[in-house]
Protein 1
Amino acid sequence: MLSNTNLAGYATFSFDYFLNGGFIACTCPDCKSEINLPIQIYHSGTLLEKLADQYSMHLIDELVERNIVHLKDEDSRVHYGLEKYILWNMDARYEVIPCKACSNEFLAVFGMAELQPGREEVQFKGIWKLNS
Ligand SMILES: [Zn+2]
């Protein structure tokens, strides 16, 4: 289960933001430690499909039900070449971030792609606490 609260919020970034050392930051709701997520362009994150192996399929279903990620439309030309779970026209990726000071774990969901020549975007969907 994911927490209801998105701890980091939704935002779209240019690649430059992260290439210049930018990162996502939020606070652990229980111990107030800072949680940082640097995103390495074309390296960070794992395709969302793998979350089923690492955690459970329920977690992916929850992300779909809550409209955080979407299922690829197999008939869409725009979606050609994308994986099963997408954001807006790009593959959905995730990272699990452990809190440095307590036993909490957090799930970050994002994607990155060159949507058109010269239009490089990181779509950051948020960070949620993983509730066991
Ligand atoms: Zn904590």
Protein 2
Amino acid sequence: MRNTSGFHKIAARVAAVVGAVAMMAVTVGCGTSSARSAADGTVNVVVSINQWKSVASDIGGSKATVTSILANQNVEAHDFEPQPSDIVKISKAQIVLVNGAGYDSWATKATQNAPDAVVVNAATTAGIASGANPHVWFSAAARKAAAKAYLTQLQKAAPDDSSYFAGRYEAWLKKENALEKTIAEAKSKTQGISYAATESVAHYLAEDLGLKDATPSGYVQATENDSEPAPGDIRTFQKKLESGSIKMLIVNDQEMNSTSSLIVSTAKKSKVPIVHLTESMPSKEKDLTTWVTSLVKSVDAAVK
Ligand SMILES: [Zn+2]
């Protein structure tokens, strides 16, 4: 779903779980919820969603133990409900890397029981507020800002390994810069091209590529409010595809329903190129950089 409102309903339910775990911690003793390094002496890092896991592992290397709460790509992050065991993992971490922007509020909430755990909020590091489009791992600026902030916290958590982490970060930055070069090259073709999306997951990637969002506003508003678009809005969308004013359709395969399926079939009939992507990182992808690079190439290939 493109909105955060649907997700907020879940956040309320999660609050109850967090409360229950907090009580558990009180019962068994105060020490259980404080941050501590992993058993092997590495920095204990927890990431909320799998989109950020490779960044955390790349920079942490062998001196950080990185656990992702949402490891399974078949789970839709907006609808995720953490188990009490997930909350415990978060509360024991030294560094918690969250996506932010309302996407994974449950993770930030869980750190309230762990005053020693440091939170790196990817959206906040890039100045993206709650309520903005939450799919921030697709933003080059957010990736860079989050990685830098995460490096700083690793170095604070393990000062003796400061230069090790700096070296790992430099290697990561080299990959990210290569990706941004690929984006810049694609942009010579994609700049100003009108696209529409069944769901706003690729918002930041489209922005980085200079694409123009031509998704009809009625459709956007309906999906943002977690409601079914009116027949008139769907018809407007179809007409724009049929007339050729939309040059590309971006489809989130992880969030399909009867309306988006109808839009996809209209695009196919009208020979509008379709770019497929998912919300979570596909397991076949090595890391966030290779994933985003392959998406950039798909978008580039879709522009005639
Ligand atoms: Zn989403």
